[in-house]
Amino acid sequence: MSTAGRRVRTGVTAALVALLLWGTLFGQDDAFPFGPFRMYATRDAPDGWVLSTRVEAVDRAGRVLVVPDAATGMRRAEIEGQVDRFRQDPALLAALARAHDRLHPGEPSYDEVRVVQKRYRLRESRPTGEESERVVATWRR
Q1: Reduced 3-state DSSP string for the chain
Q2: pLDDT value, residue 44
Q3: Which of 25, 77, 100, 139 could crosslink 93 through cysteines, CB 3.0-4.6 Å?
């Protein structure tokens, strides 16, 4: 390999290592693969609380539905990552209702969308049965 080729390889390697180091220290999930993918980089305490987030909707027919990923095109992890934004500005949940209407025009529209968080207590990594729920954001048409 030529001297110029080695320099290019060394420069590219140094740039990749710098990006990985920066991502590890300062990055978030959206910087993956140069940032941590926190879903796999953390774990819940064996004795503590676990948080589970879901989206519920009330449709025009008055049914309360747990909104699956396919209904809006947003995955649960994306919803969980935006909980603080939804809490601060519940009007953002209207986008989920619009997405549902666009993806499923034959189904009743959502008149209400809410983000619900359920907490489970663990002891020795097993559920104790102690749990609570709270609505953290609500949008109404």
Answers
A1: CCHHHHHHHHHHHHHHHHHHHHHHHHCCHHHCCCCCCHHHHCCCCCCEEEEEEEEEEEECCCCEEECCHHHHCCCHHHHHHCHHHHHHCHHHHHHHHHHHHHHCCCCCCEEEEEEEEEEEEEECCEEEEEEEEEEEEEEEC
A2: 72
A3: 139
Domain coordinates of the chain in residue numbers? 3-40, 44-140
Mean pLDDT by 10 residues, the chain (141 residues): 92 89 75 66 79 92 90 86 93 94 92 95 90 95 89
pLDDT confidence of residue 34: 66
Which of 16-36 are b and which e, b meaning 16 or more Cβ less than 10 Å from the residue's Cβ? Answer: eeeeeeebeeebeeeeeeebb
C-alpha–C-alpha distance, residues 115 and 90, integer Å: 9
Strand-pairing partners, residue 55, are: 115
